[in-house]
Amino acid sequence: MVEEDEAAGAVTGGGTDSLQKSRPDYFASLRGGRAPSLRLESSTDDDNENSAKNTSDEPTDVASSLTRTELSRRFASMREIRSSDDLQQVEVRVNNYSYHVPIRVDAPSIKTVINQSPCYVATNFMQNVGELITGKRKVGDTLGHYEDKWILKDINLVLKPGKTYLVMGPPSCGKTSLLKAVAGMLKPSGEGGKIEYNGISKKDEPDMVLQNIVSYVGQLDSHAAFLTVQETFDFAANCRIGTATTSKDSGGNENDLSENLTIDGLDLAVCRDTYVGDANNRGVSGGQRRRVTVGEMMVGQNPVACADEISTGLDAAVTYDISSSIVTFAKAAGTTRLVSLLQPGPETFSLFDEVILLAEGRLIYTGPIDEVVDYFASLGYKQPNTMDVADFLQSVATPDGATMFHADESPMDEHYSASSFAEAFQKSTRHDTILTELSSPTGGRWSNKQLDSIDEENPDGDDQNISNAIPEEIKDQYKNSFFTSTKLIVKRNLTLLKRNREFLIGKTIENFGMGIGMALIFLQSAAFPSGVNQSDKVAEWFSLGCPEDGFTDDVSIAYDKLLAGTYSSIFLGCFHILLGTLTGTPDEVDQRSIYYKHADARFFQAGAFLLGGQISQLPLLFMEIVAFGLPFYFIAGLAYEAKAFFIYLAILIAYKFALKMLYGVLVQTLPKKANVQGVGTFLYLLLTLTSGFIVYPVAIPGYWKWLFYANPMAWAMQGMASNQFFSSTYSGYVCERISLGEAALESPRGWESGGGGGGGGNFFFFFSYIFFFWFVNWVA
């Protein structure tokens, strides 16, 4: 009982000096008492509400949901159906790695409306030019003075298979950058070292796809809200492993084995059929959603995984549970895991094998967790009794570390800076051991050369000098073909669309109501012949043979009303479609984080994502167009002809599709919703003004004419006008070899060429337009 009280006191900072000295025993007791194989079953669905139960003073003696023995057995079953087992054992070596970015040092420290305005930028540029003329500024600094800021500097690490590493350090120390560097998401600056995987770097083998070796788990939970946990893992497995990965011998499926193993190991089986949800839609709890984020990137069990700040937004109990699952997976599978945490609790800290400590981009310690306190004690830093080890390490390289510094027990007379800490570690025996390992051959290393012969002097080989060919599966850019990826994305998007019933119902009511409301403004104004708009007088005048003396003011007014009503109805329909596209585009920015996450992990080709996304939008587009066009067409009085009606709907669908591709470029290129809304509004104004309705085509200046011919709204309006005036409704009304429809199209509102822009030309334009902007979206 006394021993338990002492251990509890050590956690809270009240431990004795003897316990501080026997720190390995302390960490061992934490591992034995509070670190079962996986998340404890005492945790319920709502992790945050039950966190107090998991952090009680007494260890909870409950069997883990999946033991390490069971995990090892299931991992062995999965390996049996893999094409290669080489991927399960990968040693990562970070050799003198450095990374820097240019930072403008003379920029305003705080952005304001004034210093971000064009006038300020122009004034600042002229001032820089003046300094350039007087010799106070270099030519390269005309737009601003930039200096290189080291994000990572001279990092040396050896990451062994089967070990787990905790990456720590104060904010802006380079934790995320280190994890991204290991994941191959950063390139070293200049001659800034290299990172090798089983002895091969990306430079040595350009065909090596690091996403097949290293998984990266980001800080944010970006998921499709209306997919269940199971469906999220299904999609990840199909993309990361491939849809055709099955076993011919055992009949097993690697996708299913990997998915089920991950779901069970992360204790997500209880909510596998629950929507993932998000901030606006009810789903799994916050802790479970974080597990989904971790598991989605670990499906397929890549030999190395980097998890960045997995504790973001979670309490200590949930962080412990997730970290315990990651550690147990690594031990059972013999894989390498790097996890960065900001302020882990003592139980979580004790789970890991080694700690990597950074400060201002420099490595100040890496080694076993039970040796770190003694190492800093040798530099003169003592852990206070009121602070656990993780908090001590978090503070030691900050200005607060000066309060823990004892000059009489240190080689230096003052508090160490980050560079001083790095230099001290480089002189340590631990760093010498790392350098020795970096210079020695990698066990089971890969080679980018085929071994055609056996060394006659050493036919049996030496474990330290055996070279294996790089597994072909890590050279796969994507696990699925373009067609398969497109099919997966279409299926996923249609599932999401089908389940978002509130959105579908709202869109249907919105478009149907707008169709009726807007058409009532022009009630039967496009009808011909009709007494509502007095167009029957025009029909009567044509039937009399178009006598000159019969073209009275009443006929002239009726003719103008007919043209105005028809073109206004057509314009209003196109205007509504444009407005709907504008208002819906900013919401698509929220989905970019999901795309970026999947694209960085090589889930699918960018072209497949775009094509699949557009194909899956067709049902929604069709529903919107029919809900709006059906009441609008007949209430406004457009041609009562089946052919004309379906061509009208087809033109609206093609027009809507073209607008989606045009505004999609804004979604792909602009950083924020506000930017998309602002530029989209300007584009909306430009398309409206150059459509040929507000300003007649004949009145558009020549230097703006290209906007008219490149405007999808203009082509849609002229296509619908041609469809209307060339319909059977207007057939038979001919006067002096010109029909009423041709006369309407030759009016100032119509085509200058006189009735051009008929159906085939319009659809050819829309298909070309859609293809062009699909390509632009793909590039973006």
Category by helix and strand content = alpha/beta
How many angstroms does the end-to-end distance come to? 65 Å
Q: Low-confidence parts, pLDDT < 50 over ≥5 residues? A: 1-22, 31-64, 246-251, 450-464, 752-758
Number of helices: 28
The fraction of residues in strands falls at 5-15%
Structure description:
- The chain is α/β, with parallel strands linked by helices.
- Helices cover 48% and strands 10% of the residues.
- The protein contains 28 helices and 14 strands.
- The strands form 4 sheets. The chain has a 6-stranded mixed β-sheet, sandwiched between helices. It has a 4-stranded antiparallel β-sheet with strand order 2-1-4-5.
- Strand 7 (304-308), helix 11 and strand 8 form a beta-alpha-beta unit.
- The longest helix is centred in the C-terminal third of the chain and has 32 residues, at 553-584.
- The radius of gyration is 34 Å and the shape is elongated.
- It starts with a helix and ends with a helix.
- The model is unreliable at 1-22, 31-64, 246-251, 450-464 and 752-758 (pLDDT under 50).
